[in-house]
Amino acid sequence: MIDQRQPSSSTDGVPLPVGPDVGRFLVLAVVFVCAACGLVYELELVALASYLIGDSVTQASVVLSVMVFAMGVGSLLAKRLRCRAAVGFGVLESVLALIGGSSAMVLYAAFAWTGGSRVVLVVFSLAIGVLIGAEIPLLMSLIQRASRRDAEGTVADLFAADYVGALVGGLAFPFLLLPWLGELTGALATGAVNAVAGAVLVLWLFRRDLTPHWRRRLLLLNAAVLALLGLAAVLAGDFEEAARRAVYGDEVRVAVRTEAQEVVLTGPPSGPPDLFLDGRLTVRGRDAHRYHEALVHPVMNGPHARVLVLGGGDGLAAREVLRYRDVRSVTVLGADPGLVDLARTDPGLAGLNGRVYGDPRLEVVQEDPFSRLRLAEPRAYDVIVSDLPDPAAAADTKVYSLEFYGLARRALAPGGRIVVHAGPPGSRPRNFWTVEATLAAAGFATTPYRDRSAPGGDRGFLLAAPDAAPPLSLPEGAPPLRSGLRERLSGAAPAAERTRLSGLEPSTLVRPRYR
């Protein structure tokens, strides 16, 4: 409990160790730091929830809406502490530093060991929001204690420092914290900064407002918080490795965090690796050919000298394309450069893709697919292979939009075709058939087909062309296939049609319809 004998933090209290202007500046500096830390906590939760749960729009909406609501609750609760603002702020910042700094680690632990993290996400969003919302009323009391100026000017200064701090925190998160420290250590470091800022303000500037009893308590509390955050930072590497084993098993061969995603290769050293991207199995080494043969070979039935592969940084789609000797050029566009480097250098993954990145016909363009197609020459490609995550897992659904498919249609030469991996028709039929409706709205005639022998159990594809629906068949002279695709193709289209949903609207940039 807060000591009720503590002196009031009104302007009539014990003088501060500095002048009013310096005291005012120091309070505003702490407002700036706290605002930056608070926004980092929010962005950490959004980023990690999007990675662990998927659907970044939903996760951002949940975190931000819950936090804003909780900030209002925190502001109301803080009214009871304004008469003891120094102690209240000191305790609040210590608790916020501990909860905010550990939030990413706890959320990751919940995902790794229980498989669910939505409840933890909401609980931390509420807790952090309440604590952030309580800051401003207490800081208002402290700045009035430091400097007796007009209330209107004080409010303006406080909010200016708060907003500028939020700007700095928002920019520091993607450009400094994530690249240098990563999500877990970045959150812990932010908590440490938060704790130090609160401690300096209360234990030095407003130390005369505290009883000796409360000075000792706050010193011990801040020391404990900093010790816990420091210990967690030291153990972060071991924790991440243990959590990774809990998610992927004991046979993790490679784990790297690229600028775009977490890439993990698992499996025994002597066998082909399984590839996980952001925790989702993308390639099962022993039967990876099933998915990629189903994706690539039907669309090669026609002119295919110039091929564009969207995504596909693992090189497996390009491997299937380059099995055709009359292919003159393959452009891999928009692939994660970290995944491409791993596919070039890792012996297991390079062996799985046939060391395709050494083929002189292959070019890697690390550019946003939407921007690249806007600038592409008309009729530049005979075939476009969209080897991207399905809309439910994609971080950016603009590559499944009407506008994007319009650009793809312009980039196709006469007789050209596109194939799109559109997710499982069985479990996500609305997303699958929304992609089909979007292709149709862009001027494509489509042939949907489904392959349940591929890794993941159910994969849906859309084969499309601008003029007429292309036949679902293999080209003459197709290379030998290991998956038995030729025999399965006859039932692939009816299997997809059985899941059809009618009357769906196309997805656009301003009206995305995937969920």
Automatic annotation (TrEMBL):
<dbReference type="InterPro" id="IPR001045">
    <property type="entry name" value="Spermi_synthase"/>
</dbReference>
<keyword id="KW-0808">Transferase</keyword>
<feature type="transmembrane region" description="Helical">
    <location>
        <begin position="90"/>
        <end position="113"/>
    </location>
</feature>
<dbReference type="Pfam" id="PF01564">
    <property type="entry name" value="Spermine_synth"/>
</dbReference>
<dbReference type="InterPro" id="IPR030373">
    <property type="entry name" value="PABS_CS"/>
</dbReference>
<feature type="domain" description="PABS">
    <location>
        <begin position="233"/>
        <end position="470"/>
    </location>
</feature>
<protein>
    <recommendedName>
        <fullName>Polyamine aminopropyltransferase</fullName>
        <ecNumber>2.5.1.16</ecNumber>
    </recommendedName>
</protein>
<feature type="binding site">
    <location>
        <position position="261"/>
    </location>
    <ligand>
        <name>S-methyl-5'-thioadenosine</name>
    </ligand>
</feature>
<keyword id="KW-1133">Transmembrane helix</keyword>
<feature type="transmembrane region" description="Helical">
    <location>
        <begin position="59"/>
        <end position="78"/>
    </location>
</feature>
<comment type="pathway">
    <text>Amine and polyamine biosynthesis; spermidine biosynthesis; spermidine from putrescine: step 1/1.</text>
</comment>
<keyword id="KW-0472">Membrane</keyword>
<feature type="binding site">
    <location>
        <position position="292"/>
    </location>
    <ligand>
        <name>spermidine</name>
    </ligand>
</feature>
<dbReference type="InterPro" id="IPR030374">
    <property type="entry name" value="PABS"/>
</dbReference>
<keyword id="KW-0745">Spermidine biosynthesis</keyword>
<feature type="transmembrane region" description="Helical">
    <location>
        <begin position="25"/>
        <end position="53"/>
    </location>
</feature>
<feature type="transmembrane region" description="Helical">
    <location>
        <begin position="184"/>
        <end position="206"/>
    </location>
</feature>
<feature type="transmembrane region" description="Helical">
    <location>
        <begin position="155"/>
        <end position="178"/>
    </location>
</feature>
<keyword id="KW-0620">Polyamine biosynthesis</keyword>
<feature type="binding site">
    <location>
        <position position="314"/>
    </location>
    <ligand>
        <name>spermidine</name>
    </ligand>
</feature>
<feature type="region of interest" description="Disordered">
    <location>
        <begin position="468"/>
        <end position="515"/>
    </location>
</feature>
<comment type="subunit">
    <text>Homodimer or homotetramer.</text>
</comment>
<comment type="similarity">
    <text>Belongs to the spermidine/spermine synthase family.</text>
</comment>
<dbReference type="InterPro" id="IPR036259">
    <property type="entry name" value="MFS_trans_sf"/>
</dbReference>
<keyword id="KW-1003">Cell membrane</keyword>
<dbReference type="InterPro" id="IPR029063">
    <property type="entry name" value="SAM-dependent_MTases_sf"/>
</dbReference>
<comment type="function">
    <text>Catalyzes the irreversible transfer of a propylamine group from the amino donor S-adenosylmethioninamine (decarboxy-AdoMet) to putrescine (1,4-diaminobutane) to yield spermidine.</text>
</comment>
<feature type="transmembrane region" description="Helical">
    <location>
        <begin position="218"/>
        <end position="237"/>
    </location>
</feature>
<keyword id="KW-0812">Transmembrane</keyword>
<feature type="transmembrane region" description="Helical">
    <location>
        <begin position="119"/>
        <end position="143"/>
    </location>
</feature>
<feature type="active site" description="Proton acceptor">
    <location>
        <position position="387"/>
    </location>
</feature>
